[in-house]
């Protein structure tokens, strides 16, 4: 028994022994990594599929579930790295600026909720409350601490979704699968929305559908339009990838390239084309002016990225982009009556929203630095509402998320949160322009971010967790793939 052990020890002691040990260690690590990360990733995708189910996650119970699921998955992922003694695929140093801005904003939101008996920064509304009640009241910078805490929970949930996508999608195959999964999930909800519109009611939800417009499982057609737009851009990205990968060839004349495109359309690209058709039909039948126009801008950006990439690849690649554009245009002509009718009836602008924007701006400049507390628009706006608006209805949102952020956080910290997202967008744009392999992932991420960024100028879609979480999953994958796979980004 001593001889084999000695020989084994001698073998390990030789120069090649270190290599043998490292090889055994890597094989063991791979055997642990694959099942662990695969389970986490598929659970993550299941969470993204759940998010739109219950009113687009716009109810308290959905916020609670999401706040457990996604931060919980992030904690499990971090614990798995510790157990496996593995580094993060993308270290925090690679995102130093957006991470610093985000953590500063989170700290400020926490500071806004601290209660004080006597503090010069406390909002004057708490002094008015004390006078009305006839007793001292502990105040804070936030005019409603419960609303601020809820908004903070949603913000942290969104950050955990981004962080998981960033780490898990450093692997290119996972990043492509996430993009395809978002398209498939969107197709399912779009199909349900089309069926529900014909039925006239939603089987498991308490709200009826908007007459003649698709809302799917969302509380209104505008928010669903933004979600459908994200899913449509991902579906078009998958179609373009299939065309350029399976039907691409620099040889042959134009007839050969057309035949190749048609062949791929009936084989590898058939499912994503069908899914994109369903999503686009549902999107057009929402009749949402902002949602459809912003989706058009997102598709235009994606087309520009694809065409720029195609310039170096030749006419066949440009032909694939044109072919997809014709498919989208044909579907738009077939199902665009609801959108065109809504546009003719209501126009592009809305006088009520313009009044809300002006009143919100006035409130911002009344407390420009401190803000009123993150997520407190619904509590603040009644103090500024005047006769420029009808007495009917309650304005729970400003229909401009940028203004709401600045009102809640103040000009300095609100700008920090906006710049944090802009920095991530710029990373995706750079990756979309420079990457050769998996370039479609940052291209789709940048296009969807621009889509939502335009839409929230006139609506509050990103305040729906279904939109926010899906968007940040796509952006996380885009940032992860914005650098070459050969680059070492580990911490």
Task: Report what the structure shows.
By secondary structure, this protein is an all-alpha fold. It has 18 helices and no strands.
Number of helices: 18
How many domains make up the coordinates?
Answer: 1
**Main pleated-sheet profile:** none
Mean pLDDT across the residues is 83
Order of helices and strands: HHHHHHHHHHHHHHHHHH
**Oligomeric state of the chains present here:** single chain
Q: What's the gyration radius in Å?
A: 26 Å
Structural class: mainly alpha
End-to-end distance, in Å?
44 Å
General form: globular
Q: How much of the polypeptide forms β-strand, as a percent range?
A: under 5%
Number of strands: 0
Query: Which residues sit in consecutive blocks of at least 5 with pLDDT less than 50?
Result: 1-32
Please estimate the helix content. over 70%
Concise account of the structure shown:
The chain has helices at residues 2-13, 15-50, 60-84, 96-112, 124-133, 145-168, 172-199, 221-246, 254-266, 270-286, 289-311, 315-335, 337-346, 351-366, 377-380, 401-434, 440-455, 465-480. It has 491 residues and is mainly alpha-helical.
List the helices and strands and how they pair.
Blueprint (H helix, E strand, L loop, with lengths): L1 H12 L1 H36 L9 H25 L11 H17 L11 H10 L11 H24 L3 H28 L21 H26 L7 H13 L3 H17 L2 H23 L3 H21 L1 H10 L4 H16 L10 H4 L20 H34 L5 H16 L9 H16 L11
Helix pairs in contact: 1-2, 2-3, 2-7, 3-6, 4-6, 4-16, 6-18, 7-8, 7-10, 7-18, 8-10, 8-11, 8-12, 8-17, 8-18, 9-12, 10-12, 11-12, 11-17, 14-16, 16-17, 17-18
